[in-house]
Amino acid sequence: MEVIELFKHLVQTKSETPNDGGLLDFIQEYLPDFTAIRLDEGDVKNLYLYKKFSEGDHLCFAGHVDVVPAGKGWDTHPYEAVEKDGFIYGRGTQDMKSGVAAFTQALKEARAFEGTLCLLLTSDEEGEAINGTIKMLEYLKDKEMLPNAVVVAEPTCEKKFGDAIKVGRRGSINGYLTLKGKQGHAAYPQKAINPIHKISKVLGDMAGVNIDNGDEFFSPSKFVITDIRSGMQVTNVTPNELNMMFNVRNTTITTQKEVKIFVEKHLKGLDYDLKLTQGSYPFITNTDTKVVQNIDKAIENTLKIKTKHSTAGGTSDARFVSSFGIDVIEFGVINDTIHAINERTSVAEVKALHQVFKNLITIWR
User: Is the pLDDT confidence value at 218 over 90?
Assistant: First the structure.
């Protein structure tokens, strides 16, 4: 197979989380020169393939074969990998079977490397992500087999292929606030404590406000209110309490402590309960690390452009990789239709991504 044929095969295989559609077996057979480690947890399947060429670094390409449900309203069948006007349409074309095809083909074609090349794939990235990449990394740590550097082939580019890589990701702090009041009759507001009135006096100073100013890598940590609920859906009773949910995509500057201080500052004197949870933690890979320096060179060698370093967007399995002290970056195709109806990516991007990864393997020092 060449990379586009491989890519179409991946897209044509329905693999909605946590089902891998048999793709991990297929990829294991596709790379027969690599030694396989399988680690399945319940319905989740995980695959680690490695090949030692010589002494040296341990470079890993990582990703997921699972996709979100296709949904309805497609112009083409979401699992037929229809090619038209230079694009291939199908669920997972951008997120992230393009990346999987590109690095799998690059590994198959690799004839030399100063160290060990490996691949890590899971079927649990789009789901709860508790039995996927994290489980394989824990296993590899126990066996003292963790890689030195990881490239996650998530879609990262913005307007033009090659224009951005991810050198980090923001964290995600979730907040659950209950503001207490005293239920009463709307005709006698002086006898009640209306939590809606209380929150309205400070909401403008909280909603959409930056908790920090960000830095050269991260945009500011913003207090984003996602839900407010209160009352009994009647006009003559004021509510007993108000429930508000919020999210802060936090930088390395802001932690749960700073979020708590922010809330306390604006709700001082009010009776409330606050619960904070951390969905993911922020991380940054220094730009002078080998993986950043080499992917920059590979992109410039292949595409003749200089890429920018970004931390924008949501989360990925790179957050698990970073937590093990491994240098990790993300690089993949343009991100503009992921999880959408009529998801698609161009043939040219997939071919170019394959060439970037081949060049990365060649120039790695």
Answer: yes
pLDDT of residue 102: 98
What tens digit of pLDDT does each residue of 119-158 get? Answer: 999 999 999 999 999 999 999 999 999 999 999 999 999 9
Domain with CATH 3.30.70.360 in the chain: 172-280
* 126 catalytically annotated: no
The DSSP bridge pattern shows strands 283-284 and 46-52 to be unpaired
Q: What's residue 314's pLDDT?
A: 83
Binned at pLDDT 50, 70 and 90, residue 357 comes out as: very high
Alpha-carbon distance of 194 to 186, in angstroms, equals 10
Domain with CATH 3.40.630.10 in the chain: 3-169+282-363
Section 347-360 average pLDDT: 98
Among the listed residues 66, 95, 126, 317, the single catalytic one is 66
As a CATH number, domain 172-280 is: 3.30.70.360
pLDDT in tens, 227-264: 999 999 999 999 999 999 999 999 999 999 999 999 99
Instruction: Say which of 125, 296, 317, 349 is annotated catalytic.
Output: 125
Give yes or no: 33 in active site: no
Tell me, letter by letter, the H, E, C secondary structure of the chain.
Answer: CCHHHHHHHHHHCCCECCCCCCHHHHHHHHCCCCEEEECCECCECEEEEEEECCCCEEEEEEEECCECCCCCCCCCCCCCCEEECCEEECCCHHHHHHHHHHHHHHHHHCCCCCEEEEEEEECCCCCCCCCCHHHHHHHHHHCCCCCCEEEECCCCECCCCCCEEECEECCEEEEEEEEECECEECCCHHHCECHHHHHHCCHHHCCCCECCCCCCCCCCCEEEEEEEEECCCCCCEECCEEEEEEEECCCCCCCHHHHHHHHHHHCCCCCEEEEEEEEECCEECCCCCHHHHHHHHHHHHHHCCCCEEECCCCCCCHHHHHHCCCEEEECCCECCCCCCCCCEEEHHHHHHHHHHHHHHHHHCC
